Amino acid sequence: LSDRLTETFRNLRTKGKLSAADVDGTVREIRRALLDADVALQVVKEFSARVRERALSDDVNKALNPAQQVVQIVNEELVGILGGEQRRLAFAKTPPTVIMLAGLQGSGKTTFAGKLARRLEKEGHTPILVAADLQRPNAVNQLQVVAERAGAAIYAPEPGNGVGDPVRVARDGVEHARRQQHDVVIIDTAGRLGVDAELMKQASDIRRVTQPDEVLFVIDAMIGQDAVNTAKAFQDGVDFTGVVLSKLDGDARGGAALSVASVTGRPIIFASTGEGLEDLEEFHPDRMASRILDLGDILTLIEQAQQAFDEEEARKVAEKFATDQFTLDDFLQQMQQLKKMGSMKKMLGMLPGMGQMKQQLDDFDEREIDRTEAIIRSMTPAERTNTKILNGSRRLRIARGSGMTVTDVNQLVTRFEQAAKMMKTVARGGTPNIPGMGAM
Ligand code: GDP
Ligand code: MG
Q1: Over the stretch 5-53, which tens digit does the pLDDT of each residue have?
Q2: What is the DSSP letter of 84?
Q3: Which of 69, 155, 344, 428 has the CB geometry, 3.0–4.6 Å to 173, for a possible disulfide?
């Protein structure tokens, strides 16, 4: 018995496994959807290779239908790349906690500085903003406005007093914060429109003299395909401990999140979602994964793939009916499918002239499937392929093996033979006359 069980399970496992063609088709759609969501090509390639590998491996969840399996794998991989668990801001053991911001000009650093200060105040901290962006004429002024709106303190260079050296302003700002007993220092820095060596040197100098607990790389979620190069340049030039994804409101599809997290391996900590001070959210990898899935319409695409899969199955089954190759193994597989995804109705619906049978299937009893399964599993491969060899002693052995009566076995065999005959007529284009279809 145990040999046969092993055999049966091996069969089930291969049946539950996705075919390479199923997986390739679905992965192709996922690639397209991710590219539509602005995920960088390189990341999309790596990602789909991994999903393909996993979907074809033995580690798929057999309780799910093929489409659900792919969705689950895609979702898990997305969440994994996005950092898995939500990562919170790290605070220093001895205050002040120093948080330095880095990123291109216009990425949203100054806006984020205000939002973060506001949030920290609400949580009972005493943050101070440090204006270390002396590049743009109006930058200090802008931070002053932001600080005022956020109700936060600010350290800015006095005009004519050491102006021009952002590294020194940053260092003095941290000293000032320590003296004034602010427990968090947020250093706003300058950006360029593009990555350049001078910007990187300045930022890495600021990092060196202030020894921040967090260096947050702020990146515009709308940046699209450029996200990878920008993130890499900042990682090489300054390095950072976490990412802030800004402008995630509006049309941003979040692809940048995946690109940045994937190429840098750094966690995304916050999402900035608007111009208002309150538009700040902690970043949740699982939510972003569903956002990316939704926005790429991947779920719809997968449903379509699944439908194609069902149609293909139905076509194969119809072919078997027509050519008399329909066996109890196929019957069992149908039963399992029926239980797993309720698709037999759908498949029967695809065959011509199956309307009335579909109706009967609506009253289908699931326990009946279990009994049928038990009986078929107690049969040898030869018995499943050819019911004609089922003599009395074989039927008795099967009944004992499955815990059913010989009458149960007889009924199943009769039903199967009737169904196969009937289906053959249908598949060849005739009109079926269905006797005793109650339990098929
Ligand atoms: P910085 O140069 O990196 O300091 O960028 P800013 O903070 O000055 O932001 C540049 C522009 O983007 C400003 O017009 C901001 O109002 C806008 N901005 C910043 N963050 C967001 C956001 O999350 N959503 C939207 N819609 N706009 C933002
Ligand atoms: Mg700024």
Answers
A1: 334 334 333 445 567 777 787 788 778 878 877 888 889 999 999 988 8
A2: S
A3: 155
With respect to CATH, is domain 97-284 assigned 3.40.50.300? yes
Residue 39: closest CA among 71, 76, 78, 67: 78
- Pocket of ligand 1 contains residue 274 by CB under 6 Å: yes
Q: Predicted ipTM?
A: 0.99
Pocket lining: 105 vs ligand 1, CB cutoff 6 Å: yes
DSSP string for residues in 289-346: HHHHHHHTTHHHHHHHHHHHHHHHHHHHHHHHHHTT---HHHHHHHHHHHHHH--HHH
Decide whether any atom of ligand 1 lies within 6 Å of the 189 Cβ: no
CA of 281 to the centre of ligand 2 (A): 20
For residue 233, the one-letter residue type is: A
CATH no. of 325-427: 1.10.260.30
Pocket probe mutation, ligand 1, options 189, 192, 246, 249, max atoms within 8 Å of Cβ? 246
Half-sphere exposure of 359 (CA within 13 A, CB side): 5
Q: How far is the CA of 263 from the centre of ligand 1 (A)?
A: 24
Classify domain 2-81 at the CATH topology level. Four Helix Bundle (Hemerythrin (Met), subunit A) (1.20.120)
Ligand 1 pocket: which of 112, 146, 187, 275 to mutate (most atoms within 8 A of CB): 275
Query: Nearest ligand to the C-alpha of residue 107?
Result: 1
What is the CA 51 to chain-centroid distance, rounded?
Answer: 10
**332 alpha carbon – ligand 1 mean position (Å):** 60
CA of 147 to the centre of ligand 2 (A): 12
Residue extents of the structural domains in the chain: 2-81, 97-284, 325-427
Q: Which residue CA neighbors atom 12 of ligand 1 most closely?
A: 108
Those residues with Cβ within 8 angstroms of residue 228's Cβ, 6 or more apart along the chain or in another chain: 40, 42, 43, 259, 260, 263
User: Taking residues 142-150, what's their average pLDDT?
Assistant: 95
- With tokens 């105040």, the residue in question is 121
